[in-house]
Design a protein that fits this description.
- This protein folds into two domains: about 20-280, no CATH class; about 310-460, Mog1/PsbP, alpha/beta/alpha sandwich (Protein Transport Mog1p, Chain A, 3-Layer(aba) Sandwich).
- About 40% of the residues lie in helices and about 20% in strands.
- It contains 16 helices and 15 strands.
- It has helices spanning about 25-35, 45-60, 70-85, 120-125, 130-145, 145-160, 165, 170-185, 185-190, 195-215, 220-230, 235-240, 250-260, 270-280, 370-385, 445-455; strands spanning about 95-100, 105-110, 115-120, 310-315, 315-320, 325-330, 335, 340-345, 350, 355-360, 390-400, 400-410, 420-430, 430-440, 460.
- The strands form four sheets. Strands 6-7-10-14-13-12-11 form a seven-stranded antiparallel β-sheet, sandwiched between helices.
- Strand 2 (about 105-110) and strand 3 (about 115-120) form a beta hairpin.
């Protein structure tokens, strides 16, 4: 299943560029400098970001068709490199910008400054500002080191006491461990599964970068809504691959005054319009599965869940899970899955086929009831899972709190299969605690005892 999304479906990047006068204005320059962007927990060095990114490029480009038209590639590369000059923090990376020959509206960044933009972004954008926004957002992922932050969270449990070696200088083995995991689980699972918090940070860095570069910073959030309305089918992968931060436009609006206040900014250039015209004249991209994405890799079924459980402790809940599963943190929640339980494609698309997700959902309406809030969540899930069907729903209690158990049937990311999902929603002071158990329909019953044990272990703050 595609991970749950908060709020409505807007999503990703936007735009602004050209040389910046704004950074030189006295008032705005000092306001901009007050902002601080600091990458989170990371076991890897700056140099290892580049090393790991280069290794992942080899895996990605085995499967990705690239646009080779020199005018198109030069425009995107020049635009990207100009933007990096206005990004915060350490930007000392061997920046490369390439165009993927896919009409899906998407983009992604690997650690170390290796950024890929689908031709679909150039085709769908109205102006240069919108393309620049997509690229500024991805630059944000790089400078905030989100890829190796996610890798650190994945590698750390496997290293155990070996983490000490990393801090004592055994950095080569750490990078080797990460690349081994790339081979096992794929680039997208290790480097591209960003949380909503990471998406919010990338929005902030992108807005900051675009503002300093002289573009309208509001375009960063507006692009998602515009593109979603114009091309709903072509944006499906964009919205499912990049979790939608709650109140995205509001957060961008709140950031603008900290940058020095509103500015009109540059929106377009003749170079963009000429490039877009050239892209539209290119031959159609190679055929893939419907939607233009290569089919996810379908690994062998994962090993049976271990009978030994370990505990995950989050700020709002705790839950135990089999010790042969992996925990991937999200903002306010966690994804728990066996090796191979999360399928990926070459462009960063991912979906969970086995395991569990735990997160928080804030209902949009005040005075909400459990049934209505659960239905709102189901409708949010349905936007990225259009064939989702509710089978039944029953009331229950968890730790004395009112809860609902909703049995769902959905298309599995495993080709040609259906999946069964059990959605548990528990009423809390801050909203819903949401637990989602996922497995292929044919094997769900064999996972049920594990899911039941996990649910019994659930502790709510």
């Amino acid at each position: 299943m595609r991970p749950p999304r908060r709020g409505q479906t807007c999503r990703k990047y936007i735009a602004l560029l050209l040389l910046a006068c704004v950074a030189m204005l006295p008032g705005s320059a000092s306001a901009v400098e007050k902002l601080s962007f600091k990458p989170g927990f990371n076991l890897f060095s700056h140099e290892q970001d580049i090393q790991l990114g280069k290794g992942a490029v080899g895996e990605v480009e085995k499967e990705l068709p690239l646009v080779t038209d020199p005018q198109v590639t030069r425009y995107v590369s020049d635009l990207g490199r100009r933007l990096t000059g206005f990004a915060p923090g350490n930007t000392d990376y061997p920046w490369t910008f390439k165009v993927v020959n896919s009409q899906d509206i998407n983009a992604f960044a690997l650690p170390g400054g290796f950024i890929y933009v689908n031709r679909g972004v150039l085709e769908a954008a109205d102006d240069e500002a919108q393309v620049a926004g997509v690229m500024a957002h991805e630059i944000g992922h790089v400078v905030m080191r989100h890829g190796t932050h996610q890798a650190s969270l994945a590698v750390a449990p496997k290293l155990g006491l070996g983490i000490l070696g990393a801090f004592l200088g055994d950095s080569g083995s750490l990078a080797a461990q990460a690349m081994q995991m790339v081979a096992e689980v794929g680039v997208a699972t290790l480097f591209l599964r960003y949380s909503r918090g990471a998406e919010t940070e990338a929005d902030e860095v992108g807005t900051y970068t675009l503002y300093r570069a002289g573009y309208n910073p509001y375009a960063m959030a507006q692009f998602f809504e515009i593109i979603q309305k114009k091309y709903p089918q072509r944006t499906l992968e964009l919205f499912s691959d990049h979790p939608n931060p709650e109140n995205r436009i509001k957060k961008v609006d709140e950031l603008i005054p900290q940058l020095g206040g509103p500015q009109k900014g540059v929106s377009d250039s003749p170079g963009f319009q000429a490039t877009k015209k050239r892209v539209l004249a290119l031959p159609p991209p190679p055929k893939a599965k419907p939607g233009g994405q290569p089919a996810p890799k379908a690994p062998a079924p994962p090993p049976a869940p271990s009978s030994n459980f370990v505990k995950y402790r989050g700020p709002e809940f705790a839950i135990t899970y089999p010790d042969n599963w992996q925990a991937q943190e999200d903002t306010g929640g966690v994804m728990l899955a066996p090796p191979g339980g999360i399928l990926t494609d070459a462009q960063g698309g991912s979906a969970q086929a086995y395991g569990a997700m735990v997160n928080l959902h804030t209902p949009s309406k005040k005075g909400w009831g459990l049934v209505d809030a659960t239905q709102e969540l189901i409708e949010s899930l349905r936007k990225s899972n259009p064939n989702l069907r509710v089978v039944n729903q029953t009331s229950m209690k968890i730790r004395g709190r009112a809860a609902l158990s909703t049995r769902i049937e959905n298309d599995s990311p495993l080709e040609g299969q259906k999946e069964t999902d059990q959605l548990i929603t528990v009423r809390g002071a801050k909203g819903l605690t949401v637990v989602l158990f996922v497995a292929p329909k044919a094997t769900f019953e064999s996972y049920q005892p594990t899911f039941d044990a996990m649910l019994r272990s659930l502790e709510l703050r």
